[in-house]
Structure formats: structure tokens, C-alpha cells
Amino acid sequence: MTLERYTVARVPFPFTDQRGVKHPPALVLSQPGWLPNAAGMAMIASKRHAPWPLDWPVQDLQAAGLPVPSVVLLKLFTLDHSLAAEDAPQVEPRLRRLLGL
């Protein structure tokens, strides 16, 4: 699978205080082919945590395929394509412009 830039994918995150793995959403930032079989991504989280200075709220939850109010976090990582499930549409154009993407 190739992850397309500006899409939302479900990705596995292990939690040290729990058994198992959760699959929260992440924003794909890199273009296909940036790394062989991997993508650069940013975490997406619900607004339940205290805001950080660089958090960016997702305004159109339906367009992003997110069920609850969410923010893009400046927590960057790379992930092998085989571990992600692409399941949501493209991120809203306004967020892309403001992030300079």
C-alpha cells in the first residue's frame, strides 16, 4: 500500500501502561516515494489533553474522517506502509495551507 500525502491513516501505537496496541489517526506528511515503503507522519489526538503551543485543531471532522474533536500534534515519526491502514479522506485545504503543506 502507498500512503498518499495529506490523508489520515490509522497507525499502531503501543502503550507501556496497557496491554495491546491502539490505532489512533495520523496525518501523512510525506509524498509517496520519499522513503522506500515508509511515510513521514504527524500524530492526531483528541482535544482531551492540555493544549500544546503548536497543536492545530482540525476544523472539519467529517471531511477528515474523525469522530471526535481532534488536533494535529507536532509529534513526527516515520512508519512502514504495511503497518498503517489508510481509512480517511484528505485533510481540509485550510489546514494544509496553514501548515505550509
Helix content percent band: under 10%
Count of distinct strands? 8
The top level CATH class name: Mainly Beta
* Class derived from helix and strand content: mainly beta
TL;DR of this structure?
This is Type II toxin-antitoxin system PemK/MazF family toxin. The chain is mainly beta and 101 residues long.
List keywords for this structure.
SH3 type barrels; 2 helices; 8 strands; 101 residues; 40% strand; mainly beta; two-stranded antiparallel sheet; 6-stranded antiparallel beta sheet
Structural topology:
Layout: E1 7-10, E2 13-14, E3 21-22, E4 25-28, E5 38-46, E6 56-57, H1 61-64, E7 70-80, E8 85-90, H2 93-98
Antiparallel strand pairs: 1-4, 1-8, 2-3, 4-5, 5-7, 6-7
Protein name: Type II toxin-antitoxin system PemK/MazF family toxin
